[in-house]
C-alpha cells in the first residue's frame, strides 16, 4: 500500500470501520476484502455461516496512519514491513473498537482470518497466502492475531503470489470458532477431470486444516448433482486428525478407534451438504470450492471461492486419463501387447508416488537403470524410455521389453523364466500361456554369440568380486553417511549445493548399479529353487521353497528389529529415559532426551549407533518426500514404547527369527543324493545373495537419503522466498526443475512457477481418489472400471507367502508412525503393503495380511524370516476387515477369513 504521509496522523473514527457480517451495511470487497465480502453475502443469502465481524480496510488505513507506519513502509522490503507491523501495537482508540465488537459477539473463542482485496476473486484465490490464527480467546490474543493477519500481506509467499503487484489494504475477519467433529471441502464440479454432474466431497475427522495440509486421511464421496445420490465413495482408515489439544493450541491427535473405519458422513448428510453446495453455486452463478464443517449434526460453511483452476492442457489429459504406462505412444501391437508389472521392483517403488517421487523415478530410469542392466551382463541395454512406465502415479516395469533384452543372458534365454516371476493372478493362466511378446526374441546368430560371450565374462567377474564389492559398499556407505551428518547445507551457495547434488547423484548411480546383481541373483536362485521343488517333488514340494530354513536370520532388514529391541531394553534400564519417551509428545522426545544428562548419555550410547546403522530407512524409499528415521525418529520412539511395554527380553526376537524348527529336510531326504546336493547348493547360493543384497541395500537407500537432503534444502529456501507455502509442497516439485534451478541462474519464481506446482498438486489429489491399479496387466487398463469389493465379504483369497495357520485379532495399520504404539503382540497386521521400515512390527505380529504383494515382496520375505503366517495380494483386506475382528490367516492356502466380527 502506497502513501505520501511521513508523520503520524490521527484519523477520526469512521462509521463502519468494524462491520458485523450479514447485517445492515456494505458488502463491498473494497471495504471488507474478498473473503469477508463473500461471508457477508452468504449470511445475507441465508446460508449457514458462523457469526463474524470484519475489521475493514478503512480501519487498517487508520492503523497505519495513527502509528506512523504509513510513511515507514513506503519502498521498504516486504519482510521489513511485516516485522514493523508485528512489533507495533494497535493504538487504544482502534483497539477499543475491535474489542467492543468482540464483546458484542459474546467473547467466544474465534478464528481470525485475513481478507485481502483480491482474495477469493475469480481471477485469483490467494488460498493459503495470508495468515489465519485459530482458537483465539482474550483481548490481548485477539489483537495480536489481528496484527499477524495484517502483517501477512507482506509475507514472502504473498509477495511472490502477487507477482509484482503492489500490496493493497487488508481487512480481517473475526469469526466464531467451531470445533468441528468433521470437516472438509466440497467442489461443485470435479476440479481435475471436469466431468459433469459430479459434486466432489472430501471429509476428514476434526478440523479441516489437516485435510488442507494433506497430513490426515480423508474420505472421498461423489454426489450426483441432479439426484443428490451418492454415486461413489472411498472410505479410508483414518488414524489422525487436527483438533484442539489445549485452549489456544491446535494440533494432531488420534481419531477415536470407533470412528476410524466408518464414513465421516452418511448418505443423508451428504445429500444435505451437496444441496448446500448447489445453493452456493446457484447464488454466485459459477462453480465453487466450499469449506465446511459439521458440529453436533449441524453443517456450517466457512468459506467459498470460485474454482479458479481448470485442467491444464496436457495436465489430467496427459496422465490422468491415459490407459497405458508408456510415456510416448507406441505402435499398436506394442501399446496393446506389453506386459506391465509393479511386483517386486525393489520395494522402493511400491505404492502411489507424489510428483516429486515420480520425477525422481524418471531420473533413475533415464540415468541409472540401463547401467543396472549392464551390470547383469546385458550387452545391449536398449532404449531407456521403454524399460519403465508410469500409470496413475504408480511405477511399472516393462516386463515384455525387459524379457526381450534379458534373452541375451543364458538363464533367461527362455523368456518365460523371467516373465512368470513378475506375473500376478490378474494375467495368470490362459492369458500368459498364449502370450506373445510384441518385442519378439532377441536376435540370434552373431549377435547371440557376442551377447552370450559378454554375459559369461560379466558373470565370471561378478562371482569373483561380489563379496569384496559388498564390503566396499558398506565402507563407502558409512563414509557418506558420516560426511553428510557433518555438512551444513544451509551455509552452501546455490553453486555449492549444485555440486553436492551432483556428487550425491553419482553415489546414487554407483550404489544402485552395485546393488542390482545381488537383487537379481537372489531373485534368480529363488526361482530355480521353486522350479526344482516342483520338478523333483511334485505336489509334496508345493511351496516347499518357503518352508526351507535358509539361515538368513542375520539379514540387515531383520537385524534392524533386533537393534530397536536392544535400544528399548536400554531405555527400560533407565527409568527417567523411558519416562521421557513414554510421556513426551513424539516431536519433543529427541530434544527432551538431549537436554537431560542421562537422556543425552542414552542418546549418544544407543540412539546414535542405531541411527548410523539404520537411520536412512524409511517408508517407500524412492519417494523423496518421505522422511527417514534419522529425519524424524517418531516411529523409532513408538516402537521403543511398544517393545519396552510388552515385557519381552532382548532375546525373544532373536529366538523367533533364528530358532525355527525346519522339518522340510525330511522331504528332501526322499531325493537322490545328486538331486539333494543340487538343491542344497541352490539354497546356499540363494542365502548368500540374499545376505549380500540386504547388506548392500543400505548403501542404496542411503544414497537416496543424500539426494533427499539437498532437495529439502532447496525446499527450505523456496519457503523462505515465499515460492512454497510450506515444506509439504516439496512433494509437488519436479526433480528436474530442482536440478535446473541449482545449475542455472533463474530466480526461484521463474524456476518454480506457481501454476506448475498447483497443477501437480491437483493431479496428485486426483490420483489419490482412484482405486489401486493392478499389480500386472497387459496393454492398457481403465482404472475407472476397477472392480470394487463386494460388501460384507468375510473370506479373501490371496497368495500364501509364509506358511502356517493362525487366528488372532486384526489391526488395520494405515499410518505407521501414529499407530506403532497401538499394535499389540500377537495381533494380525492388516495393511495395504509394507517395506523395510515395517520390519519391527513383524517381530511381534501374529500374522500379516496385505492388499498388495507377491512371493518376493518385503512382507513375504520378512514374514518367512520371522516365521509369521502371511497372505499377500488380497486386494481388499483393508476394506473388508476391521480392527478387532477375529481373523484366521492360512499362509499355506492363501486364505484369510473373518471368523468373528
UniProtKB/TrEMBL annotation:
It holds the Pfam family PEP-utilizers. It comes from the Bacteria. InterPro entries: ATP_grasp_subdomain_1, PEP-util_enz_mobile_dom, PEP_Utilizing_Enz, Phosphohistidine_dom_sf, PPDK_AMP/ATP-bd. Signal peptide: none annotated. Residues 31-310 form the Pyruvate phosphate dikinase AMP/ATP-binding domain. Residues 823-894 form the PEP-utilising enzyme mobile domain. PANTHER family: PHOSPHOENOLPYRUVATE SYNTHASE-RELATED, PPDK_N DOMAIN-CONTAINING PROTEIN. This is PEP/pyruvate-binding domain-containing protein. It comes from Streptomyces roseoverticillatus.
Amino acid at each position: 500500500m502506497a502513501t505520501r504521509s511521513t508523520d503520524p496522523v490521527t484519523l477520526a473514527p469512521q462509521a463502519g470501520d468494524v462491520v458485523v457480517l450479514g447485517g445492515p451495511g456494505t458488502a463491498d470487497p473494497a471495504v471488507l476484502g474478498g473473503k469477508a465480502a463473500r461471508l457477508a453475502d452468504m449470511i445475507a443469502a441465508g446460508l449457514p455461516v458462523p457469526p463474524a465481524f470484519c475489521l475493514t480496510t478503512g480501519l487498517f488505513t487508520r492503523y497505519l496512519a495513527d502509528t506512523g507506519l504509513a510513511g515507514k513502509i513506503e519502498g521498504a522490503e516486504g519482510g521489513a514491513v511485516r516485522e514493523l507491523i508485528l512489533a507495533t501495537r494497535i493504538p487504544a482508540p482502534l483497539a477499543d473498537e475491535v474489542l467492543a465488537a468482540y464483546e458484542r459477539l459474546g467473547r467466544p473463542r474465534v478464528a481470525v482470518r485475513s481478507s485481502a482485496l483480491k482474495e477469493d476473486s475469480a481471477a485469483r484465490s490467494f488460498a493459503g497466502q495470508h495468515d489465519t490464527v485459530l482458537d483465539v480467546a482474550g483481548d490481548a490474543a485477539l489483537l495480536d492475531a489481528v496484527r499477524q493477519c495484517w502483517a501477512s500481506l507482506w509475507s514472502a509467499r504473498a509477495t511472490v503470489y502477487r507477482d509484482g503487484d503492489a500490496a493493497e489494504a487488508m481487512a480481517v475477519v473475526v469469526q466464531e470458532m467451531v470445533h468441528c467433529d468433521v470437516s472438509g471441502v466440497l467442489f461443485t464440479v470435479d476440479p481435475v477431470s471436469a466431468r459433469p454432474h459430479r459434486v466432489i466431497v472430501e471429509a476428514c475427522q476434526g478440523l479441516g486444516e489437516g485435510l488442507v495440509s494433506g497430513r490426515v486421511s480423508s474420505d472421498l464421496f461423489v454426489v450426483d448433482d441432479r439426484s443428490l445420490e451418492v454415486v461413489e465413495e472411498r472410505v479410508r482408515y483414518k488414524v489422525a486428525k487436527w483438533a484442539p489439544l489445549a485452549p489456544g493450541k491446535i494440533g494432531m491427535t488420534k481419531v477415536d478407534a470407533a470412528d476410524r473405519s466408518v464414513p465421516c458422513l452418511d448418505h443423508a448428510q451428504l445429500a444435505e451438504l451437496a444441496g448446500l453446495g448447489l445453493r452456493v453455486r446457484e447464488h454466485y452463478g459459477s462453480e465453487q470450492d466450499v469449506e465446511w464443517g459439521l458440529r453436533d449434526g449441524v453443517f456450517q460453511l466457512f468459506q467459498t471461492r470460485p474454482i479458479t483452476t481448470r485442467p491444464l492442457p496436457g495436465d489430467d489429459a496427459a496422465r490422468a486419463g491415459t490407459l497405458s504406462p508408456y510415456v510416448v505412444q507406441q505402435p499398436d501391437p506394442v501399446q496393446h501387447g506389453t506386459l506391465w508389472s509393479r511386483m517386486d521392483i525393489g520395494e522402493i517403488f511400491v505404492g502411489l508416488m507424489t510428483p516429486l517421487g515420480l520425477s525422481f523415478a524418471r531420473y533413475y530410469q533415464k540415468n541409472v537403470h540401463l547401467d543396472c542392466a549392464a551390470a547383469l551382463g546385458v550387452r545391449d541395454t536398449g532404449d531407456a524410455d521403454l524399460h519403465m512406465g508410469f500409470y496413475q502415479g504408480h511405477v511399472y516395469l516393462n516386463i515384455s521389453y525387459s524379457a526381450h533384452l534379458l534373452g541375451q543372458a543364458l538363464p533367461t534365454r527362455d523368456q518365460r523364466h523371467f516373465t512368470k516371476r513378475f506375473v500376478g493372478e490378474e494375467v495368470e493362466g490362459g492369458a500368459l500361456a498364449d502370450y506373445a511378446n510384441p518385442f519378439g526374441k532377441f536376435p540370434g546368430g552373431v549377435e547371440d554369440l557376442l551377447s552370450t560371450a559378454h554375459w559369461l565374462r560379466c558373470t565370471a567377474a561378478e562371482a569373483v568380486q561380489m563379496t569384496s564389492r559388498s564390503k566396499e559398499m558398506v565402507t563407502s556407505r558409512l563414509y557418506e553417511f558420516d560426511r553428510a551428518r557433518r555438512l551444513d547445507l544451509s551455509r552452501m551457495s546455490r553453486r555449492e549445493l549444485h555440486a553436492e547434488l551432483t556428487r550425491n547423484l553419482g553415489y546414487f548411480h554407483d550404489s544402485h548399479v552395485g546393488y542390482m546383481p545381488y537383487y537379481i541373483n537372489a531373485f534368480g536362485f529363488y526361482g530355480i529353487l521353486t522350479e526344482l521343488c516342483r520338478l523333483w517333488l511334485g505336489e509334496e514340494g508345493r511351496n516347499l521353497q518357503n518352508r526351507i530354513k535358509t539361515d538368513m536370520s542375520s539379514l540387515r532388514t531383520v537385524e534392524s528389529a533386533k537393534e530397536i529391541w536392544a535400544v528399548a531394553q536400554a531405555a527400560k534400564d533407565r527409568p527417567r529415559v523411558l519416562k521421557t519417551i513414554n510421556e513426551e509428545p513424539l516431536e519433543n522426545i529427541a530434544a527432551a532426551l538431549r537436554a537431560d544428562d542421562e537422556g543425552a548419555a542414552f542418546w549418544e550410547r544407543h540412539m546414535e549407533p542405531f541411527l548410523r546403522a539404520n537411520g536412512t530407512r524409511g517408508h517407500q524409499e524412492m519417494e523423496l518426500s518421505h522422511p527417514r528415521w534419522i529425519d524424524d525418529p517418531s516411529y523409532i520412539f513408538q516402537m521403543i514404547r511398544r517393545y519396552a511395554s510388552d515385557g519381552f527380553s532382548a532375546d525373544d526376537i532373536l529366538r523367533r527369527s533364528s530358532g525355527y524348527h525346519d522339518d522340510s529336510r525330511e522331504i528332501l531326504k526322499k531325493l537322490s543324493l545328486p538331486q539333494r546336493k543340487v538343491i542344497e547348493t541352490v539354497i546356499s547360493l540363494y542365502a548368500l545373495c540374499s545376505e549380500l543384497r540386504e547388506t548392500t541395500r543400505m548403501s542404496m537407500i542411503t544414497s537416496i537419503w543424500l539426494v533427499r537432503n539437498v532437495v529439502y534444502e532447496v525446499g527450505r529456501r523456496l519457503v523462505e522466498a515465499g515460492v512454497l507455502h510450506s515444506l509439504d509442497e516439496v512433494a509437488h516439485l519436479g526433480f528436474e526443475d530442482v536440478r535446473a534451478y541449482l545449475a542455472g541462474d533463474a530466480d526461484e519464481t521463474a524456476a518454480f512457477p506457481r501454476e506448475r506446482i498447483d497443477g501437480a498438486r491437483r493431479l496428485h489429489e486426483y490420483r489419490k481418489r482412484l482405486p489401486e491399479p493392478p499389480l500386472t496387466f497387459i496393454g492398457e487398463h481403465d482404472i475407472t472400471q476397477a472392480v470394487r469389493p463386494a460388501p460384507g465379504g468375510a473370506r479373501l483369497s490371496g497368495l500364501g507367502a509364509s506358511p502356517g495357520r493362525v487366528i488372532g485379532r486384526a489391526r488395520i495399520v494405515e499410518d505407521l508412525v501414529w499407530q506403532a504404539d497401538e499394535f499389540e503382540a500377537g495381533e494380525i497386521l492388516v495393511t495395504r503393503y509394507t517395506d523395510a521400515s515395517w520390519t519391527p512390527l513383524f517381530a511381534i505380529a501374529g500374522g500379516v495380511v496385505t492388499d498388495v504383494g507377491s512371493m518376493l515382496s518385503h512382507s513375504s520375505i520378512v514374514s518367512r524370516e520371522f516365521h509369521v503366517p502371511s497372505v499377500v495380494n488380497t486386494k481388499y483386506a483393508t476394506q473388508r476387515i476391521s480392527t478387532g475382528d477375529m481373523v484366521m490367516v492360512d499362509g499355506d492356502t492363501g486364505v484369510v477369513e473373518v471368523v468373528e466380527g
